[in-house]
Amino acid sequence: VRFNGGGHINHSIFWQNLSPNGGKPSGELCEAITRDFQSVDNLKSTMAAQTNAIQGSGWGWLGYNPNSGKLQIVTCGNQDPLFATTGIIPLFGIDVWEHAYYLQYKNVRADYTKAIFDIANWNDISKRFSDVCKLKVYVKIEN
């Protein structure tokens, strides 16, 4: 269930996170990115680096930590769903299973994780952020 269900959850978010000419972060999301990562460019480079460091297949995520009220970059191996394994609420995911990038980028994952920001649907990501900011939850995940 974790693998197949996680794959469904992750890809459902991933497809909504992508859009031609995705735009740029704005409003409350841009303010939070600046607060938590100093700049949008720093968010992009940090997220790409952490996602590239995944050994094998997995996902890089920009998520919202409901306990701290801050944005956080987290990686998950395989198809592990972010919220169920970490308590972090997913906003934007980068799929680094080879099927996601190999035909276009071959084995140069770093080019893919850099380019994906060009098609990031910041309207969707901003809506997800706005929605989770309205939640008042505390999450405790026990392994």
From TrEMBL:
This protein's UniProt keywords: Metal-binding, Oxidoreductase
Transmembrane residue ranges: none
GO CC list: mitochondrion
Enzyme Commission designation: 1.15.1.1
Gene Ontology molecular function: any one: superoxide dismutase activity
Organism classification: Eukaryota, Metazoa, Ecdysozoa, Arthropoda, Hexapoda
PROSITE patterns with a match to the protein in the record: SOD_MN (PS00088)
Family: Belongs to the iron/manganese superoxide dismutase family.
Segments forming a coiled coil: none
EC supergroup of this enzyme: oxidoreductase
Keyword Metal-binding: yes
Protein name per UniProt: superoxide dismutase
Catalytic activity: 2 superoxide + 2 H(+) = H2O2 + O2
InterPro entries in the record: Fe/Mn_Superoxide_Dismutase, Mn/Fe_SOD, Mn/Fe_SOD_BS, Mn/Fe_SOD_C, Mn/Fe_SOD_N_sf, SOD_C_sf
Pfam families: Sod_Fe_C
Manganese/iron superoxide dismutase C-terminal domain location: 25-128
